């Protein structure tokens, strides 16, 4: 569905049949709820990575649900390497949302370059770098990384430099809007952005109705509409509640 169709579906589901009781919801308000639902949907799909440690790829359906958001990108070094810190800091992509894994990490020691066999995401409280068995090793082709606000720390133990670093990740979904249906000049968001051209949902088409259902459930709950529980129960069929 394009964004206009998502709006139409939303309005049909928020109102009772042959009723326009909630027709006063404006385009920016519906856009806000759809974007809230998209954000929540992506979080629900990604949640198993914390609950089961299996990553979000628990089934083919889950893989397909956010397949358009899965991507890979080379990450760039933030400034020059500092040999005294024993780590190199890399910037995350601007559209980064959630880490999946490292696609490629090439270590360089002198004239020798090799590919890391194992890249391990470590806890900040772990003294992994002080352990001869756990610290990053050029010889064993094992590299430790941690995530910080500034990006990704790649610990080199003073043995090597990172030549190439590419990660796989879930990117942020596009923020949808139906501004073309709000007049010739569109509208200005709460963040001060002037929207004049429609943006469609960039999640797979087969989940668009589920996203609308989720947006409707959120809205009916916020407005305390009597049939909120009925709309919420519908989400259970798709395991979204």
Describe the structure using short key phrases.
single chain, 241 residues, alpha+beta, 4-stranded mixed beta sheet, 6 helices, 10 strands, 28% helix, elongated
The overall strand count is 10
What structural class should be given to the helix and strand makeup? Answer: alpha+beta
Largest beta sheet, briefly? 4 strands, antiparallel
Number of helices: 6
Q: Give the H and E element order.
A: HHHHEEEEEEEEEEHH
Envelope shape: elongated
Across the major sheet, the strand order is 1-8-3-4
**Rg result:** 23 Å
pLDDT under 50 segments (min length 5)? none
Percent strand equals 15-25%
User: Average pLDDT across residues?
Assistant: 85
- Estimate percent helicity: 25-40%
Number of domains: 2
Q: Give the N-to-C terminal Cα separation.
A: 23 Å
In words, what does this structure look like?
By secondary structure, the protein is of the alpha+beta class. The protein folds into two domains: 128 residues, no CATH class; 102 residues, no CATH class. The protein contains six helices and ten strands. It has a four-stranded antiparallel beta sheet with strand order 1-8-3-4, with no helix packed on it. A four-stranded mixed beta sheet has the order 2-7-6-5, with no helix packed on it. A hairpin with a 2-residue loop joins strand 6 and strand 7. Helix 1 crosses helix 5. The protein is elongated and about 65 Å long.
């Amino acid at each position: 569905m394009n964004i206009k169709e998502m709006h139409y579906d939303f309005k049909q589901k928020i109102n009772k049949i042959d009723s326009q009781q909630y027709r006063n919801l404006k385009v920016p308000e519906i856009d806000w709820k759809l974007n809230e639902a998209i954000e929540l949907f992506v979080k629900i799909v990604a949640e198993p990575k914390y609950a089961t440690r299996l990553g979000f790829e628990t089934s083919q359906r889950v893989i397909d649900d956010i397949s358009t958001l899965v991507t890979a990108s080379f990450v760039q070094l933030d400034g020059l390497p500092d040999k005294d810190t024993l780590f190199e800091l890399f910037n995350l992509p601007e559209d980064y949302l959630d880490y999946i894994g490292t696609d490629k990490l090439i270590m360089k020691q002198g004239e020798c370059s090799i590919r890391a066999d194992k890249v391990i995401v470590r806890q900040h409280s772990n003294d992994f770098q002080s352990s001869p068995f756990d610290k990053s090793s050029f010889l064993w082709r094992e590299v430790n990384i941690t995530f910080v606000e500034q990006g990704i720390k790649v610990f080199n133990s003073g043995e090597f430099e990172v030549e190439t670093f590419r990660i796989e990740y879930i990117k942020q979904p596009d923020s949808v809007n139906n501004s073309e249906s709000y007049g010739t000049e569109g509208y200005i968001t709460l963040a001060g952005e002037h929207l004049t051209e429609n943006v469609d949902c960039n999640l797979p088409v087969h989940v668009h109705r589920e996203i609308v259902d989720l947006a409707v459930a959120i809205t009916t709950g916020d407005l305390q509409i009597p049939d909120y529980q009925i709309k919420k129960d519908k989400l259970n069929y798709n395991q979204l509640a």
